[in-house]
């Protein structure tokens, strides 16, 4: 039996060797695979050098505290080496930050809060299991309380301009109640009442002194990590050209104060199809508009020539 086993082992080794030789002979050369030099050819993983100073909305992180240092290091590592997601954030930021930034500025909200939208939704119209929707992940009750229409026919949480205005209202109220922009950001995730309750229970007045659950405890660190990475692409190993980024598509607004029975037909009047109309107006949830109240809606239409 041992002799048979030895013979079978030798046969198996010869077979595997033959397959390996065949694979080497048949494998295409680097020149055949890579006809153009790649943008980057470095797959090593490096420890990151944490900046000496980091801040959120002008409020410094206490990086001399070893707990804060390690939590910040974690988020920088996780988001730096999740390369595909990181590159998508660079691409989408180029398209959506120009819409978000002026609304934040108009409302007196620090520009850093645009990165809150990044970690909330990845700058997509995300849907959460809890019922939050859109780039700013607004819950139905919060949307309605702040003047958004939320129903099966129209859901203005998907309207980026209107949703950003609602986010601004929430953040202003949170800052007034809690006293800092950092706590206001935490409250966007943990709720005004929830953060206020924890501050009182733990006898502290600063986010970085709070013991919080996993999600809210990581929340501000994730925002700061995305701010740092998206502000320093080459430092964190992201390589791209300006033409690789997504571009904003100019639109004009068409005012509608009546019902629309068929958006496919409506779209054709402007030289586009229903799909393109929905891309620019995701808040229109059905293929028609009820509008029994004769409300004035502004429907975005892309300028001519952007869709062939």
TrEMBL record:
<feature type="domain" description="Transglycosylase SLT">
    <location>
        <begin position="104"/>
        <end position="203"/>
    </location>
</feature>
<keyword id="KW-1133">Transmembrane helix</keyword>
<keyword id="KW-0472">Membrane</keyword>
<keyword id="KW-0812">Transmembrane</keyword>
<protein>
    <submittedName>
        <fullName>Lytic transglycosylase domain-containing protein</fullName>
    </submittedName>
</protein>
<dbReference type="InterPro" id="IPR023346">
    <property type="entry name" value="Lysozyme-like_dom_sf"/>
</dbReference>
<feature type="transmembrane region" description="Helical">
    <location>
        <begin position="7"/>
        <end position="24"/>
    </location>
</feature>
<comment type="similarity">
    <text>Belongs to the transglycosylase Slt family.</text>
</comment>
<dbReference type="Pfam" id="PF01464">
    <property type="entry name" value="SLT"/>
</dbReference>
<dbReference type="InterPro" id="IPR008258">
    <property type="entry name" value="Transglycosylase_SLT_dom_1"/>
</dbReference>
């Amino acid at each position: 039996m041992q002799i048979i086993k030895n013979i079978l082992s030798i046969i198996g080794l010869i077979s595997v060797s033959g397959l390996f030789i065949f694979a080497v002979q048949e494998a295409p050369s680097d020149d055949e695979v890579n006809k153009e030099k790649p943008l980057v050819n470095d797959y090593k993983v490096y420890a990151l050098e944490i900046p000496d100073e980091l801040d959120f909305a002008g409020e410094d992180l206490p990086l001399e505290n070893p707990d804060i240092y390690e939590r910040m290091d974690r988020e920088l590592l996780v988001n730096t080496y999740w390369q595909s997601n990181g590159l998508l954030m660079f691409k989408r930021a180029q398209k959506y930050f120009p819409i978000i930034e002026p609304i934040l500025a108009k409302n007196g909200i620090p520009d850093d809060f645009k990165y809150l939208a990044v970690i909330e939704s990845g700058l997509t119209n995300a849907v959460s299991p809890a019922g939050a929707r859109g780039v700013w992940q607004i819950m139905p009750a919060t949307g309605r309380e702040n003047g958004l229409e939320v129903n099966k026919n129209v859901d203005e949480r998907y309207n980026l301009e209107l949703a950003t205005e609602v986010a601004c209202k929430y953040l202003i109220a949170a800052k007034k109640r809690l006293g800092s922009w950092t706590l206001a950001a935490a409250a966007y995730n943990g709720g005004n009442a929830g953060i206020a309750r924890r501050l009182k229970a733990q006898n502290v007045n600063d986010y970085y002194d709070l013991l919080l659950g996993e999600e809210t405890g990581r929340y501000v660190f994730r925002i700061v990590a995305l701010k740092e990475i998206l502000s320093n692409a080459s430092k964190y190993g992201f390589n791209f050209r300006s033409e690789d980024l997504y571009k904003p598509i100019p639109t004009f607004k068409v005012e509608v104060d009546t019902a629309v029975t068929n958006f496919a037909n409506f779209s054709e009047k402007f030289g586009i199809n229903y799909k393109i109309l929905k891309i620019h107006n995701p808040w229109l949830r059905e293929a028609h508009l009820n509008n029994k109240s004769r409300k004035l809606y502004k429907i975005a239409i892309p300028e001519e020539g952007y869709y062939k």
